Amino acid sequence: MTYSFASLSPLDFELLVRDLLQAHLGVRFESFASGRDGGVDLRYTRDRSSGLVVQVKHFANSSWPDLQRALSRELPKVQRLAPSPYLIATSQSMTADRKRWILETFAPYIGSPENVYGLEDLNNLLTQHPDVERVHFKLWLTSTNVLERILHSDIFADQGSELAHLESRILRFVSSASLPRALKILNEHAFCVITGVPGIGKTTLAEMIAIDHLKRDFQCFRVWDVRDARRAWRESTNQLFYFDDFLGRTAMRDPNRNEDEQLVRFIHDVAQSTRHKLVLTSRDYILNQATESLEGLRRANLEPSRCVVALSDYTSRARARILYNHLFYSNIPRAHTEALVSSKAHRTIVRHSNYSPRIIEAMTDVLNVRHMPPEQYPKAFLQNLRNPRQLWETAYNNHLTTAAQNALLVATSMPDEALVDDAERVFDALQARRSERYSQPRSPYDWRRALRELEGTFITLPNKYGTLTLNFHNPSIRDFLEHHLRANRADVEDLIASAVFPDQPVRLAQILRGPGNTQFLERLLERYTDLFTAPVASLQLVRRGDVNSLERRDQSPIHRLIAAQPIVARAPAAERARLAAPMVAHVSEYVATAPQNRVELFQLLSSIRESSIPGIDTSHPLFVQTIERAYDDFDPVFVGADNYDAMLTFALAHPEHLRPEQRRRLDDHFEDFASSEIDYIKEESDADQKLEVFDQLVGIAERLGRRISLTREELLEDLEYQREPDYDGEGYSSGGSAGDDMNDADLDNMFDTLVE
Questions:
Q1: Are 529 and 571 spatial neighbours (Cβ–Cβ below 8 Å)?
Q2: Are residues 196 and 100 in the same domain?
Q3: Banded pLDDT at 349 (limits 50, 70, 90)
Q4: pLDDT, tens only, 133-145
């Protein structure tokens, strides 16, 4: 097959040349990011004094004079590099005269006409290295004869696709780790179930697998039910059947039609055949739901043939290429692309936690941006990434069972990470309320079924330190659900009424930011007050020896009162003291009897001074009571550096709140306190902890104008310890996280070529 390479972007063409020349020359090239390359696209270095350099020029749709001018601009760079030898690869056709001009222009660096690879030479190399051709999907996918075979295969029949549409779709395709994984599963099992969250690229992956098999002389059919597949079945013909969203259709979800049994029998027949293959796609939550409810699918055990498409499949380089291809081949105005590149928004897009091929596709469609001023385009792109709720809305409203919807509402009201058992308690309370209020059906198995339906798509259930926890699969899911709650107050009221943990009213108040009516706030506060002394759902990592565990946070009444601030702050000013009164009573009792933890006492004092606790000011009895508790009757031997530091900090910042004897007590007890801390430092086995407490003690002494009996040098000498220098970050890519395969310079160089 002869290619013009016109369908490849400059980046795609450079990667193709790299792989071809590596295979042909038997060397491995160092690649440079596309862009301002200083005369180098690919380099192979044999030693310090010489190196083979390749310059790649993609001029398939340009004239020979265009290529001459571009090459002439490279000459000064080549003279500075003085490579040995210098190779040029171009997508233009090369005649003897053209090669002669290139050799003379770049003499003596090229040396031989064989070091100039034109259109014909690259096609010749492709025939010698078919594996390279096969890896570069886009190269052969966009050839006319393959596209025509796609059209006749009916893979895209539901879209009424024309050749131009197919070509446009394929041009944007970028292979990721999921493609070889799916092909391997298909080869081993004859069928593959592709699952993943909405918008992650399941359908595109399935279509590329089907097109790959077209090239292998398979007949390929997109079918909507088993009867269609049975009608097309031919025993002696290589065939691939493709069911897109095979469980998302009413027919498959209707148990009366027994279609799950028909599908299982069809899968069995495919698995027994040497000529047939089957590709199915489904969203995770629908497959989990169907496996739970349909006996046939449960018996089939589809897990070994399941290929989950995950965001982790897309490295930063793959993400960048997807965005690059969509921008390169899109018909959005050039001014929009220039605005995106000049603002460096591509850096954030590529690394965004909500990155989704579906959002990239939507935001590079001219229909979505044609009325948008160019200067607003980067901001709008990022806003859609931050809040991609449209990806989840259809699934939530149209596909999930009521129990699964309720489970998601529960998860939204809980901390970001919660115990599965805790979430189940809230779920049971919500189910009971909604069953009574709306006559929703209810079963003792609802929670287990809801988890199976949601796991892998909406939620994950990681086992951390032996504890099963509940997390959202993607931050955008919580974003969508919080938006849903702000628009559906009835759901919020049900969650308030069924709350089990004090964290929930606080979380709901944070979600419902903005003006609210007093009646609603009163219900929220009343529920929080009811749960004020209940265990919290928030978790913390606890280390005992070498053993880590997740446990509920030990949240004191002081911290709970401070946490109530988002709720009370939105109440009318005249009502705040009344609404907060029950909680203040609990805190007052705690302050009177609490152990000597001065740190949290001063957190309370600071919060009152900063008006962070509505309805309470410095004249409130709680404020006076807390100062008395903080400064009276403390034992300097047991007070600890953290507590002493908190006491001194507040006393120096706000002396007007202390009686003279309270302030004087800090000076009088310093010697005993310092002696106790030095003993602690000498006994502590952790060197870093020793130095941390020592530095804190020195700081306290300096503020009091005192000295301690131990110097830092004496401590270090006694310990024979020298702190290692602080790590300065060297070794991490500029602008990227550790392990990221593209730094900011790489990304900028790549995307700069879009506007040159």
A1: no
A2: no
A3: very high
A4: 877 877 776 666 6
Q: Would the pLDDT of 613 be above 90?
A: no
Instruction: Check whether the bond before 374 is cis (ω within 30° of 0).
Output: no
Q: Are residues 299 and 334 in the same domain?
A: no
Predicted confidence at residue 17, as pLDDT, reads: 92
* 503-506 contact pairs (CB < 8 A, 24+): 503/414, 503/415, 503/536, 503/537, 503/538, 504/413, 504/414, 504/426, 504/531, 504/537, 505/531, 505/567, 506/563, 506/564, 506/566, 506/567
- Regarding whether 268 and 208 lie in a shared domain, the answer is yes
pLDDT at residue 155 tops 70? no
Q: Are 388 and 355 in contact (CB under 8 A)?
A: no
Contact (Cβ atoms closer than 8 angstroms) between residue 33 and residue 745: yes
Residue type, 314: Y
pLDDT surpassing 90 at residue 455:
no
The residue to which tokens 């793959």 are assigned: 318
Whole-angstrom distance, CA of residue 487 vs CA of residue 464: 34
What are phi and psi for residue 240, nearest 5 degrees?
-125, 130
Question: For residue 535, what pLDDT is reported?
Answer: 92
Last residue of a domain, one of 330, 364, 388: 388
Average pLDDT of the residues in 653-680? 85
Query: Residue 65 maps to which CATH number?
Result: 3.40.1350.10
Within 8 A by CB and 6+ apart from 730, the residues are none
Q: Where residue 250 falls among pLDDT bands split at 50, 70, 90?
A: very low
State which residues form the domain around 240.
Answer: 138-313
Rounded Cα–Cα distance for residues 752 and 735 (Å): 17
Dihedral angle, C-alpha 199, 202, 207, 210, nearest 10 ° = 180
Q: Which of 406, 319, 454, 412 is CA-nearest to residue 742? A: 319
| 408 sits in which H/E element | helix 402-413
